[in-house]
Design brief:
heterodimer; A: about 100 residues; mainly alpha; Helix Hairpins; about 75% helix; B: about 170 residues; Four Helix Bundle (Hemerythrin (Met), subunit A); 2 domains; 6 helices; about 70% helix; about 0% strand; globular
Chain lengths: ~100, ~170
């Protein structure tokens, strides 16, 4: 086990991103799907910070901060939509909510 | 350095375990708590890489605010333990697993083999509030415009959340 380099962090980030992608694919509860999207965003953040350190630039951290701001806005809107759907249909099962399906 | 790397492996294992729990657990509340664990581990990773501000914001915004919002909505809609939703059945589970494995392979390939050579960094990269602030509000860098755009985005988010949450009069 040598010293920890950016490659280790990138590998961990790839694993977390893939786990989040599995969750988005197999879950039917939209709240859990949202959590998996947050997991993927966090994995991207980890890669950004690690690459920023690797390249000796602060830009990676700046991008991570903006990703967090966008994620916060996304969660506020997304959970609002879920509450709204639940109010009108009494269910939030992702397979039952097919109003926009062709 | 050795203690540092042992700490990394322990935390990385915890992080991956918690992430698997987010997906594998049938109870949304437990998924949310596992996600809080993932975020705390990531915050430690940020601190270890010298990104102190990002690590603090990770704890405050993600583990503090966003996850509380998630738990609040789960409790509000009463989606906790009583009738946990099943996962998708049939073909979609193996397809999702296969596609994600391919994705993981591509990402690992890109990250491990095609890595750009690092620049020699003399001093450890500062991620303090001061350095972040200087970079953020420097007119010569692109971040100032992105900062202003983010403020518009958050305003739209607030207005949108209020519009979505209000009761229809009809």
């Amino acid at each position: 086990m040598g010293p920890i380099t950016a490659t280790h962090y990138i590998g961990l980030s790839a694993i977390l991103f893939a786990i989040g992608a599995v969750g988005v694919g197999i879950k039917r509860n939209p709240i859990v799907i949202f959590m998996c999207i947050e997991l993927m965003l966090n994995a991207a953040n980890l890669a950004l910070v690690a690459m920023g350190k690797h390249l000796g630039s602060i830009s990676g951290q700046m991008m991570a901060i903006f990703v967090m701001a966008v994620a916060a806005a996304e969660v506020a809107i997304g959970l609002g939509i879920i509450v709204s759907i639940f109010r009108s249909r009494e269910t939030i099962d992702i397979d039952e909510v097919n109003l926009l399906k062709l | 350095m050795q203690g540092n790397s042992i700490g990394f492996w322990i935390l990385a294992a915890l992080c991956v375990l918690a992430a698997v729990q987010v997906v594998a657990n049938r109870n949304p509340v437990r998924s949310a708590l596992a996600l809080v664990g993932v975020m705390c581990c990531l915050s430690v990773f940020y601190f270890a890489q010298g990104a102190e501000f990002v690590g603090a914001v990770q704890l405050i915004v993600y583990a503090g605010a966003i996850m509380v919002l998630f738990l609040f909505v789960i409790m509000l809609l009463n989606l906790g333990a009583p009738t946990p939703m099943m996962d998708r059945v049939g073909l979609s589970k193996p397809v999702a697993l296969l596609a994600s494995s391919a994705l993981l392979g591509c990402l690992a390939f890109a990250g491990a083999l095609k890595m750009a050579p690092g620049r020699a960094v003399k001093a450890p990269l500062p991620g303090t509030v001061q350095e972040i602030g200087y970079a953020l509000f420097d007119p010569g860098r692109p971040w100032l415009f992105a900062f202003e755009l983010t403020s518009v985005l958050l305003l739209v988010g607030v207005v949108g959340a209020v519009v979505l949450a209000q009761r229809r009069s009809d």
